[in-house]
Amino acid sequence: MTGTGDVTGIGDEPFITAVKPLVDAMGGEMLPPDQAGEDDVVLTWEGTDVVAVRLPQLADSLDHILAALERKQGKPLAELDRKAKQEVVRILEARGAFSVRHGVETVASALGVSRFTVYNYLNREKEA
C-alpha cells in the first residue's frame, strides 16, 4: 500500500495517515480491524480499534529492507563502491539482518559479493 489518503477498506482517519509510513517502512499491510488474524496487531485509538497491521514474515523483511536501501542509494546495491557496501552491511547488522536464516547469503547476493566478503565487512565493523 503506497500513497496517501484512503487506505482501501479502512478510511482516511488521521491516525491511519500517521502510522502508514511506519507500516510501509517495515513492509506491513494495513487491514480493517474486523479482518485481523490472530497474528495481526490491532491498533486502538481512544478506545476504538482503528486498523490492523499484518507484519511481514521475517525473511520477507530482509528483502524489504534491501529494496529500501537500494531505493535510498538510487542504484542497485551491487553497483556501490566498497565503502558504501560496508556501510550497507553495518546498517543491516544494526537491523538484525544476519539473525535471519541465510541472511549472509541473501545480503552477499544483493551486494554482488561473496559470503566471505560480507563476513569480512562484519568483522571489520566489530574491530573498529
How would you briefly describe this protein structure?
This protein has 128 residues and is mainly α. It is built from five helices and three strands. The protein has two domains: 14-54, no CATH class; 58-127.
* CA-based shape: elongated
- Spatial arrangement of strands, main beta sheet: 1-3-2
The whole-number mean of residue pLDDT values reads 86
Q: In percent, how much strand structure appears in the residues?
A: 5-15%
- Cα-based radius of gyration, to the nearest Å: 18 Å
N-to-C CA distance: 39 Å
Would you identify the regions where 5 or more consecutive residues have pLDDT less than 50? 1-6
Order of helices and strands: HEEEHHHH
Report the major sheet. Answer: 3 strands, antiparallel
Tally the beta strands: 3
| Count of structural domains | 2
Helical residues, percent: 40-55%
The total count of helices amounts to 5
Structural class: mainly alpha
